[in-house]
Amino acid sequence: MSGPDFCPRSRGVRRGAALALVFAGVLATAAAADCLPRAEQSPAALPAAAALDARAAHPARGADRTADDVSRAAARAEADGTSPDRAAEEAVGRSGDRWGAVYDKAQYEQYVAALDGRYTGVGLWVGRTGDGRIAVTGVKTDGPAARAGIEAGDVLRAVDGWAADGQPVTDVVARLRGDAAGSKVVVTLQRGTRSWNRTLDRAVLDTEAVTVQNLSAQAVMIKVAAFTKGSGERVRSAVRQAPKDAGILLDLRGNSGGLVTEAVTAASAFLDGGLVATYDVHGKQRALYAADDEGTARPLVVLIDGGTMSAAELLTGALQDRGRAVTVGSRTFGKGSVQMPTGLPGGSVAELTVGHYRTPAGHGLDGKGITPDLPVTDQPLQHAETVLSGLGGTS
Asked: Is 335 a catalytic residue?
């Protein structure tokens, strides 16, 4: 299942859907997002954006040179009276940086706002069925889709005339998200034998990044849809409030990332200090650590799938490498490259690749993902509950 209208997209998807990158493991600037872990002691921001495919980012030239080229291209275009954003996009394309992206001022403002748990969309969760169709798996209460009478189980056949059948869920979500609140999108739906169109007005919506469900007296499921601000502490709070001796099922399926520092905070709920991940920026090695004396010894199972990306992969890799959790599901997306923002003329921002993350055991994520300890595609939740029961976390 995908998150509500905020999955990432590659540069192959239309630029109008640029903000679909928002929850794909991005840290904005330190000033905007207060994103630096205390252990880092560095003034630099640490962004990590994502794209849709699993190919690693391999800039054709050094990151510094790429940033200079993009900045110069935008400045020349502005001086010539042409579009600096278009010139910057072309420069990013020439650089070979698959994960690079350019945002205009308004888009970047939305991009940063999304880190606070707000996004523009229609309030739908969607997933692909076994026969390749795109089905509505959830509807946000009081969102545009709910007000239009759309229900879970409806099949989404098209978005603005674009056929959704057989398409990647992330592409579908990117088209649903669109550009701005107030813009319209026409969806074609099917319920049984009935087909119909609905015109929805996109709106600014709040995300429920962390939800908690008591599966039994001995098991609690914590679902993290995205690592927005405060989500890490909400995970820690949910663990503390779980019944005594209850095991935890941490559901990261469809989690397309978010703030890396929030993922590290979430890791602190399960790890008693120690390494969460290492990363390099411009060739310099750095590390992220869990808080000391924070972790719980509760039995832990982590659910993952192909929609588990970036910051969510970073958390999964830490828990798996350090023997803290059993991972269940399917291989994760495979996004571990680091992007940093470069300001452009007119307030636009280019996000450019500068390095890569690695798990505590030194495994890179880009283009590889994480293979679960128990690979299952059929009824993964039930398998996860069975594993948790074997660890002593269910009755």
From this structure: yes
